[in-house]
Amino acid sequence: MLASNNGLPQLLAALLCCFIISYTVSLIRWRIRSRGRPLPPGPRGIPFIGNIIHMRQPELWKAHQKLCAVYGDVVHLSMFGEHTVVLGSQQAISDILEQQSAVTSERWQHPLIELSGQGFNFAFFPYNHRWRRHRQVFSQHIPLTRPIPDEQILIQHQYASIFLRKLLTEPGGLRDHIRYVFSATIVKVVYGIEVADYNDPNVALILRTLEGVQGFDSGRMLVQYLPILRHAPLWVPILGPQLRELAWRRAAADEVKQVMFDKTQDDLIHGRPNTSVLASILQELEEQGDVDLTEEHLIAKNTCVTAFEGGADTTFSTIQAFFLAMSLNPSIQKKAQAELDAVIGPHRLPNYRDRASLPYVEAVFKESLRWHNVLPLGLQHCAGEDIEYRGYFIPRGTTFTANAWACLHDPEAYTEPDCFLPDRFIREGKLDPGVRDPRDFVFGYGRRICAGKPFAEIEMFLVIAMTLHVFDITPPLDESGNPILIEPKFTGSFLLYPADCRCTIKPRSAEAEALILEGVQSSDGPAA
Ligand code: HEM
Fold first, then answer.
1. Which of 105, 138, 226, 386 has a 20 to 30 Å separation from 414 between CA atoms?
2. Counting Cβ atoms within 10 Å, is residue 67 exposed (0-12), middle (13-18) or buried (19+)?
3. What letters, b where the CB count within 10 A reaches 16 and e where it falls short, cover 160-170?
4. Which residues contact 509 (CB under 8 A, 6 or more apart)?
5. Under a CB-based contact definition with an 8 Å cutoff, are residues 166 and 471 in contact?
6. Where in the chain are the domains?
């Protein structure tokens, strides 16, 4: 008894010594590593949990903007010992994520990515050889720096024409039609599969994978905070159902990859025409002969589903915002339509070749991207090495949060940033190159820049130009026929959507209606 009483203080003293030694060693290591350079400035955090309060704010982009107003455009935050640096200006984003892209293209890794079935999506891959192989395959077929192939633009145009027809026959189904046009286009381009309707089983199947992203975006999964919980038994309340849900998501993602792959392969085996991205990849592999087919097929499957996932929600949300903006701003709509009438005339639909001759429509497109920035904080990058910026030390593993929203709502770059004003991009009837281009922010940065940027641009431009050419978009009406004024609001935490984009959609004239019904035949193709 006496011995144990004497032993306790000794044990405590030993523990204290261990703590002091390990603390001193880590302090010396940090000193050597940082060479005495400080971390960027930022608000003081609570011991251990750090700046959790600053990182769990509603509309985080606005909260970060306020922090930057106090501490400058490079702000350090930490949570449970993990470092985050908020980049709040164009300069800081460009210096770190563009100029130092070779060492700032890592991604944050978390077991939840695999657990939620998102392990196929190369947008979440670490910056390594495997990511490079996937990105290479993607860019060979959906180019980033070369022009998008004519046959892909033709598909985009055809599906945009079908979109117009759907709007004509069922204007109340706007959201479903927007979902349809972007999903169906990418399924056709990537797999060569025709999708007739929003309810098509192929689309439904692929949309199930998207739910996987929403699962880990919502922050409700307990394994997100304590990964070891993934080993918990399934009967544990709350956790068990979540683990079952994650297993279901993994199975859904595997099913999507395989079923879509099999359909395209089946076309090739049976000699059915299929000029899709996947068919081209498979044909190239066959020609190459001596390759590890299991590995290459896996890359092909991953790449194709990533293309769908990357493009589906982002475009879906942007075009909803475009409709909302048009219903709220009739004079802007009229101006864009006047340009279309003058350049295109009443006898055909606009096509991609017209883009350069339609600066005001282009300005509407740019303003839609800016006004409603779908990914206000983009996708986080991480530092692959220790780096220095403006004399500050940024340790390896630091997560960078680039506040695209702040750059796109900066009153010095855009007067009245909350207003939808495409004229800000126009000077003397032409696009003004001196105005900050929203595309430099919404599609991300450096080596991780959105791989589908040119494809997405063409697709959205076509939908916007073709819609404005043939439809009038006005506010929705209540039961007595009075206009309902929609207040623009956006919901979501990572990817934002307009909360309400109801509007009234009517053909501009009998001629416009005829053009819609003529559809694809009325256009003279998508030539680049
Ligand atoms: C409104 C449309 C779109 C927006 C705003 C958008 C935005 C973004 C952003 C912000 C990133 C992260 C970039 C970074 O880490 O810095 C990204 C990545 C990506 N996007 Fe898009 N995107 C759009 C459409 C598309 C489309 C249509 C596709 C496919 C055809 C696509 C495919 C991808 C892929 C594959 C990545 C991962 C890049 C990587 O990590 O290497 N995106 N996109």
1. 105
2. buried
3. bbbbbebbbee
4. 346
5. no
6. 52-523
pLDDT at 218: 61
In whole angstroms, give the CA distance from residue 524 to residue 154: 10
pTM surpassing 0.90? yes
The residue nearest atom 40 of ligand 1, judged by CA position, is 123
Instruction: Give per-residue pLDDT as tens, 37-52.
Output: 999 999 999 988 899 9
Question: Quick one: pLDDT at residue 27?
Answer: 85
pLDDT at position 5 is: 59
CA dist 188 and 229 (Å) reads 40
Asked whether the predicted pLDDT for residue 116 surpasses 90, the reply is no
From the CA of 402, give the closest atom in ligand 1. 16
Structure tokens at 9: 């203080």
Token reading at 233: 């038994």
Nearest Cα residue to 311 out of 525, 152, 97, 99: 152
**Ligand 1 atom closest to the CA of 189, numbered from 1:** 30
CATH superfamily of the domain spanning 52-523: Cytochrome P450 (1.10.630.10)
User: Which of 96, 213, 217, 450 is the best mutation target for the ligand 1 pocket, counting ligand atoms within 8 Å of the beta carbon and taking the most?
Assistant: 450
CB count, 10 Å around CB of 310?
A: 21
Provide φ and ψ at 176, rounded to 5°.
-65, -35
Q: Is residue 470 pLDDT above 90, yes or no?
A: yes
Q: Report the nearest-CA residue for atom 11 of ligand 1.
A: 450
- Alpha carbon nearest to ligand 1 atom 17, residue: 450
Work out the pLDDT band at 527, boundaries 50, 70, 90: very low
Quote the pLDDT of residue 525: 40
pLDDT at 384: 97
Please give the pLDDT value at position 526.
37
Regarding the beta carbon of 321 and ligand 1, being less than 6 Å apart is answered: no
Q: What is the ipTM of this complex?
A: 0.99
Please, where are the H alpha helices in 35-121? 52-55, 60-71, 90-93, 111-115
Would you state the pLDDT for residue 37? 95
- Amino acid at residue number 410: D
Cβ count near 50 (within 10 Å): 21
